[in-house]
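Troubleshooting: if your tokenizer reports a length mismatch, compare your output against this known-good record of 107 residues.
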Amino acid sequence: GERNPLEALDKISRKCPLAVVKVGTQGAYIKHRGKVDHVGIMAEAKRVDTTGAGDFYAAGFLVGLTRGLSMVQCGRVIEVTGTTLADETWTEIDRLIRRVEAGGYLF
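Known-good structure output:
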């Protein structure tokens, strides 16, 4: 029920050790171990169709955690259009993930 994303983040973080609040085209706020990070959307992201965006974001974030990436790297938003992904789209996603892992993302 909070309108201010940072207040929402604070409320969520009181209930769990890792909290994430997405803020649309401004990216997301992440709070972990008392530290708050703001991460934006990659410059190459195409903001066309947000169908399934929350699920894709959560999945990508969790993959980053399992790979031992930093909170900022986990929170980088990689967007694609729609929920049915062609082979070329998976190739593009893989390319962008490798850039995030290497620290070569653009803003």
